[in-house]
Amino acid sequence: DAKTTQPNSMESNEEEPVHLPCNHSTISGTDYIHWYRQLPSQGPEYVIHGLTSNVNNRMASLAIAEDRKSSTLILHRATLRDAAVYYCILRDGLEETSGSRLTFGEGTQLTVNP
Amino acid sequence: GAGVSQTPSNKVTEKGKYVELRCDPISGHTALYWYRQSLGQGPEFLIYFQGTGAADDSGLPNDRFFAVRPEGSVSTLKIQRTERGDSAVYLCASSLTGAYTDTQYFGPGTRLTVL
User: What's the CA gap between B112 and B110, in Å, rounded?
Assistant: First the structure.
């Protein structure tokens, strides 16, 4: 599985934008980039995913570098509820079984200050 | 609608005992996953079911761990001869088809403590 690298922790202020980086220099052409987050004492929840183009949804935006070796999850206005561990995960679109599972790293712990 | 549920929420057992952890997936989801999360770590994949069959059990750490999904819905993770190192939060997730673009929906987990 291709590996991702994320900072251990980041801090933000409430109502400010947050940019969470992820490096995946060994990404293959069929790997999808997924982001999940885990709030305290809860299971992970889906945030967003993409392949090549930037993506937007109600939760966040995903900016993917042109060479796909890095991506950035953007929270446009952080709230206290966004304090969580954010995981950047690659899923192989060619592998029927291994592409199905999620391979989590240690993620980035986001702290949001009031 | 109802999300993924897991029972019990907490389980304390003694070393050497047998435990069963239950997962109720979202109705209609054919894919079901078990993960294990140790303190301070990200979840670690254990097993993936497609319908009633285990499509990928490569994450099960040893033969003390076993999981079933006999009717393609509820799943049970079984751990024999528990060890202190088995203490962790066991997470279950389900998705509609298991495709690599499918969202996985996670339950709240079962916290297992082996004394």
Answer: 6
Which residue in B100, B101, B105, B110 has the most chain A C-beta atoms within 10 A of its own C-beta, making it the best mutation to test that interface? B100
In degrees and rounded to multiples of 5, residue A39 shows phi and psi of -75, 160
| Per-residue confidence band for A95, with pLDDT thresholds at 50, 70 and 90 | low
Does the beta-carbon distance from A44 to B91 stay under 8 Å? Answer: yes
Distance separating alpha carbons of residues B79 and B73, to the nearest angstrom: 20
* The pLDDT value given to residue A94: 72
B36 close to B43: Cβ distance less than 8 angstroms:
yes
Instruction: Quickly tell me which residue has 């029972």 as its tokens.
Output: B7
Q: Residues B61-77: what's their mean pLDDT?
A: 97
- pLDDT value of position B110: 98
- Which is nearest to B15 in space by CA: B80, B87, B82, B64? B82
| CB B43, CB B37: distance < 8 Å | yes
Angle formed at CA B18 by CA B48 and CA B59, multiple of 5 degrees: 25
Total residues belonging to chain B: 115
CA dist., res. A10 & res. A81, Å (int): 15
Identify the DSSP state of A82. Answer: G
Look at strands B5-7 and A18-23 and give their pairing.
unpaired
**Cβ-defined contact of B100 to A32 (cutoff 8 Å):** yes
Q: How far is CA A54 from CA A85, A104, B73, in A?
A: 22, 22, 36
Residue A92's pLDDT is 83
Find chain A residues with C-beta within 8 A of B101's C-beta: 32, 49, 91, 93
